[in-house]
Amino acid sequence: MTKQANYRPQPAGQCLKPVLALAAILLLSGCSELGYLLSNDKVTDADNDQVVFVGDSIFALSGEIQNQLEARAGETFRRYTVSGAELSGDLIAPSIPDQFREAVTDNPDIETVVGDAGGNDILIPAIALNSNNCKTPWWRFGRLSKQCRDFIDDIYVDAVDFLNEMAEADVQNGILTGYYYTKNGLFRLDDMKEAVDYGNATLARACENSVLNCTFVDPRWVINDRDIIFDGIHPADSGSKKIADLIWPKLQPLLLSPSVPAGKRPGPHSAIPLAGQLQ
Q: What is the model's pTM?
């Protein structure tokens, strides 16, 4: 159900604990509708339709990051985030590129896209079977496996192509939020640090090398274990506020004057390169 511009979801509370515990099992078994059930409501008609949020459950589960930013802006934005979303693939939820395509279909007049991408591509296989070898046990002495590095390098290609797709759709600005260190909780995830480090560096490079005017936001240095809920993954209200604190200085100037730096945006007849063509 689409919510109107004045709708503001409440922060997630303690009632989420039993729901998330069951949901985690269903998510990993491929229940494709559950992503919507564990997401704040989609908003397709907001005060400012030119700002669109896409991403995974870091943004979608409670919606508190968006709540914080909307409160500071004094206006609402469109929301398409879905829990379980990946950059590539739609087993659990519509992919993050598909979220953006839906937003374009609803209203193509988009100036700024805010969100995250790529976290579930790494995390879901790590939780299920660690099939990409992205966990780093103590005996590896902080060395991330080559298999995981190669896998994350493939995510780089998907990320650049997605950001270039935004630019081709005449989006002027992108704010790409990276990931923080997970902790042991419902899942044992304190051995993902090296994968998070490599993943964030890769996403930042994708942001820089795309043709979109893209800004990368890195939350690793502000989020601690107390800012993460019991599952070891998602931000508590304090964590959501800290992430919003990082995004706001990047978003606010775009709301006041959505200008684009010279030389970053392609001209009307410029070809949008694929990631494989970038040096």
A: 0.81
